[in-house]
Amino acid sequence: MATDTNTRFLAALDYPWLEVRTHDIITDTLPAGEFDLVHTRLVLTHLPERERVLEKMAKAVKPGGWLLVEEPDFTIESIAPGIDEGLIRLWTHGMRVVGLVQRQRGMDVTLGQRLFSMVLDLGFTSLASEGQTCMFQGGSPAAEAYRLTMEQLSALCVATGEINAHEFGEFLTLFSNPSCVMRQFLLMSVWGRRPPV
């Protein structure tokens, strides 16, 4: 079963074994002890109710089943040295303002660091984890995905008064600049088993 508040992409999948449901993880119920595996990726960081939602998902795992949670730690994002110091300052300033806006909107930019303890506190055992990040060059598809995300936050970032529209526009050009090499967030994966009865 795959769930989301917007299932337009999921609904296009034609697998006889896949059930797609429109579901709001914040407000809708989940059946308790129903699933062998419950998995979420890049969802909780956006939800102010993240602890309550994770507890709800944990309760949906059968005894002996597994919970897999994957969430980002944005604190490791960086731009590689070796380029013009002005570009580094511009990138650092722009990313600081983006982080400010993300926190104002209720995001937990450090959630990846806390996941292991959160799953442990829910009583899961056999815990393990791993993290993954990558470097990407300005002008690459990964950099373009970043740029589009940042562009959506443009008005909110300018509204903070911490950066003006011209500066933010210059910041966005860094993601198209091949001389800029950047490191993305760390995606932490944590998994654990609900003890058998």
Describe this structure in words.
The chain has 197 residues and is of the alpha/beta class. It is built from six helices and nine strands. It has a single domain, classed as Rossmann fold. Helices cover 35% and strands 25% of the residues. Helix 1 links the parallel strand 3 and strand 4. The two termini are 24 Å apart.
Annotation keywords:
Rossmann fold, 197 residues, 35% helix, single chain, four-stranded mixed beta sheet
Domain module tally? 1
Helix content: 25-40%
Q: What Rg do the Cα atoms give? A: 19 Å
Strand order of the largest sheet: 3-4-9-6
Q: What portion of the residues fall into strands of 2 or more residues?
A: 25-35%
Count of extended strands = 9
Set down the secondary structure blueprint.
Blueprint: E1 2-4, E2 20-22, E3 35-41, H1 50-59, E4 61-73, E5 78-79, H2 85-104, H3 111-121, E6 125-132, E7 135-137, H4 141-152, H5 154-159, H6 165-173, E8 181-183, E9 186-193
Parallel strand pairs: 1-2, 3-4
Antiparallel strand pairs: 4-9, 5-8, 6-9, 7-8
Helix pairs in contact: 2-6
